Amino acid sequence: MSKQSRYKVRFRRRREGKTDYRRRLRLLLSGKTRFVARKTNRYITVQFIDYSEKGDITRVCVSSHVLRKKYNWYYSLKNLPAAYITGYIAGKKALKKGISEAIVDIGLQASTRGNRIYAAVKGAIDAGVKIKCGEEVLPPMERISGAHIASYAKLLKEKNPDLYNERFSNVISQGKDPADIVSEFNKLIEKVKSDYG
């Protein structure tokens, strides 16, 4: 660490790689509720957060583990279909709490076209929340429904059964076929729509 007068210590959360304060300030100046989507190694978490001087207020929080607990979704809880449905549930809950408009806050995550964060954004948009986001970054519905996962599972089952059993062990242990993810997704989305209107 330098001792010269030109050296300036950054804020702690910036040093830890948690907050980009310049981006955060631009988001807060909009005055809108922030749509915050974060991914971990196991789950997708979607939140609607309002700014407060004493600390941010989380108005709505939905994690993808609710898909397994409430809806018996035995596929991955961190893939595109899970992210979309989590965003959809969060969007419906936000509408019930009076949040009709939000702005996307991706934090320090990379903004890649068609990734899980944008799948969650598309879920919230389809739920009825106004979120300004370019159509070109949102994933297509065939990927959101898991068609690419089904085709990969079929290919892997033919070419490398050992790797197939390893990659989809959780789904197979529940007596499900990984290639049926599209039909399971469609059933799940209908259940969610009937639950949340």
Walk me through what this model shows.
The chain is an alpha/beta fold and 197 residues long. The chain has a domain at 18-144: Nucleotidyltransferase, domain 5 (2-Layer Sandwich), CATH 3.30.420.100. 48% of the residues lie in helices and 14% in strands. It contains ten helices and five strands, in the order H-H-E-E-E-H-H-E-H-E-H-H-H-H-H. Helix 4 runs parallel beside helix 5 and helix 7 (147-159) crosses helix 8. One of its GO terms (biological process) is translation. This is Large ribosomal subunit protein uL18. GO terms for molecular function: 5S rRNA binding; structural constituent of ribosome.
- Walk across the major sheet and give the strand order: 3-2-1-4-5
Instruction: Write down the CATH topology of one domain.
Output: Nucleotidyltransferase, domain 5
Class from secondary-structure proportions: alpha/beta
Q: Describe the biggest sheet?
A: 5 strands, mixed
* CATH architecture label of one domain: 2-Layer Sandwich
What is the strand tally? 5
**How much strand?**
5-15%
Average pLDDT score: 94
Total DSSP helices: 10
Low-confidence stretches: none
Distance between the termini: 56 Å
Rg measurement, Å = 19 Å
* CATH level 1 name of one domain: Alpha Beta
How much helical structure, as a percent, in the residues? 40-55%
Shape: globular
Spell out the helices and strands N to C: HHEEEHHEHEHHHHH
